[in-house]
Known about the structure:
By secondary structure, the protein is mostly beta strands. The protein contains one helix and 27 strands.
Amino acid sequence: MMRQPHILTATEFTTLPDALRHRGEPSAWAKMTRPGQQMHSFLEAAFFDEDRNLWLADVPYGRIFRISPDGVWDVMHQIDGEPHAMRIAPDGRHIAVDYRHGLIALNDQGRFENLSTGLPDQPFLGLSDMAYGPDRTLWFTDSGRTSLSDPTGRVYCLPQNGALRLVLDCVPYANGICLSPDGEWVYVAATRANQVWRFSSKLPKTGQPMVGTYLNLSGGLGPDGLAVNAVGWLAVAQAQAGRAYVFDTLGTLLFEVLLPKGLWTTSVTFHPDHANRLIIIDAQYGTVFHCDLPSQ
């Protein structure tokens, strides 16, 4: 049985400015995921760079935003695509997982380079999220439109100077992904099962690794973005539930963080200078929230 967590409420840090809100015809992705609704943006995949800027992907309109520490928004990339996440690679390139195009490297002036569209006999379904491990291996998820009725979502890894490898092909919507601080464990959000799975990053030479259910959740749609801090706490953005959860290294629920507005909780990250400061993204209003978690 879970112990009673601390229930906290996040505080608004910044919201997508009016000038950057899309007001035209919804994109094909927006029509697919939110039929009949106007969609100003759909923000995902928060992370910080070395200068403490916060980066976000805007899936339906192909944009990558950078938010300065004092809350100024800039469009750093805009492509004809659907980037679900972007990270700055160890070599400095801006690598993204794009639902339509696959694994890409973003360039200037709306251009990008296709790095992979999948394995020769297995094209990507529609990529979702990504994370680099301490050894510079890139891990990423491929959800497509999979679910409990079609549990074929995938997880891939791409070692530095190595070949693309299919790790899992049995996930009911493989979504958020992150690694423990030491790189030993990989956490994957199985969104449509309302679970977080875990497996060792030390993969067998062939075949799939042993995988376990690390967390069973309830409510909303299921877990979306994941993040860990320096002491190994795992944060989970609970999609369509307006909240995030934080668990310790044993899977004990420590905190439930409520948003004062918005239900479309998509992404979480920890501030690099404050291990207990959790950043939470709401796509419904295009808002960035933060919450300082008490020390345990």
